[in-house]
């Protein structure tokens, strides 16, 4: 019964972020990092505004599946106010998590921790990590 409730919660959180994504749009005056997942056609354009070493604001635009959109929304919520190093650590933690590795720090990912179930569907890992990979590129270019 508990697994059933957890599955229902997962579905509700993912659906909410997909239907009403947070930080959806484009930040003016910031170069966008655009990535795509040729496997399923997901495309993301990520804009990140830094205040020194800190992520001050972030937004994403593009077309994606439910998993890609929800993961993008969750990622934007999780990294605002974080330093570049903290955000990179979170991106690595997220990547490991969706590949089935567990870590007590996953709770630090906020709602993105709900994406752990993606590990059961290897073909969806690229969908889930697309925004996080765009974040990495954005930090590398800053």
Automatic annotation (TrEMBL):
Domain NIF system FeS cluster assembly NifU N-terminal: 10-127
UniProt-listed Pfam families: NifU_N (PF01592)
Source superkingdom: Bacteria
SUPFAM superfamilies for this protein: SufE/NifU (SSF82649)
NCBIfam families (alphabetical): SUF_scaf_2
Protein name listed in UniProt: Fe-S cluster assembly sulfur transfer protein SufU
């Amino acid at each position: 019964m508990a697994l059933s409730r957890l599955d229902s919660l997962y579905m509700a959180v993912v659906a909410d972020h997909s239907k009403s994504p947070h930080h959806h749009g484009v930040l003016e005056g910031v170069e966008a990092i655009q990535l795509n997942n040729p496997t399923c056609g997901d495309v993301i354009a990520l804009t990140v505004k830094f205040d020194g070493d800190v992520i001050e604001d972030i937004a994403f635009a593009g077309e994606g599946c439910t998993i890609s959109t929800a993961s993008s929304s969750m990622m934007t919520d999780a990294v605002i106010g974080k330093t570049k190093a903290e955000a990179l650590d979170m991106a690595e933690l997220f990547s490991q998590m969706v590949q089935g590795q567990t870590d007590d720090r996953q709770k630090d990912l906020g709602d993105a921790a709900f994406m752990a179930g993606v590990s059961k569907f290897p073909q969806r890992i690229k969908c889930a990590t697309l925004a996080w990979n765009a974040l990495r590129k954005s930090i590398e270019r800053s």
